Write a sequence for this structure.
């Protein structure tokens, strides 16, 4: 399934629009529960061993992502800024240690990467399918992060197809 990627070069944001052949409730569950998030997030082959998500305004999130061979494990943290069940989710994201303390991207070998980015997910019911628009502010469309999102949404589509 194709991702529609918009390169907002002026604002350095990646925006991906996707239509999933699944009800909005299932797509929301994959975004808003740790168990759901673990099923699809990350590039192909990567896993999410930990996903702690307190999905409410001011709630925290902490998750880890492991490489296919397990040799690399990265942690991310953030805070939910907006939560409108089934339609809108906005959260911050930063690299972190396993305790949720923010770690400088430069210390992780990623100089120039912003310390805090923001993800906005908008869901819309379109005749029993779900239109999703995800914007990751601070991540350019030509970055590895944008490619990772595309792979993650392919994994999400596969999870939804099996649901």
């Amino acid at each position: 399934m194709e991702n529609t990627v918009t390169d907002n070069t002026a604002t350095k944001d990646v925006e991906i629009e996707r239509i999933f052949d699944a009800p909005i409730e299932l797509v929301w569950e994959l975004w808003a529960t740790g168990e759901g998030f673990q099923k699809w997030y990350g590039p192909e082959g990567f896993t999410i061993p930990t996903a702690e998500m307190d999905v409410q305004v001011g709630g925290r999130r902490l998750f880890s992502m492991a490489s296919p061979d397990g040799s690399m494990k990265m942690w991310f943290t953030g805070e939910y800024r907006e939560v409108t069940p089934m339609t809108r989710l906005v959260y911050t994201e930063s690299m972190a240690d396993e305790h949720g303390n923010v770690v400088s991207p430069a210390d992780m070998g990623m100089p120039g990467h912003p310390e805090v980015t923001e993800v906005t997910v908008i869901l819309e019911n379109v005749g029993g399918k779900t239109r999703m628009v995800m914007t990751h502010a601070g991540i350019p469309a030509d970055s590895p992060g944008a490619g990772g999102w595309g792979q993650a949404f392919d994994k999400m589509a596969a999870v939804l197809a099996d649901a």
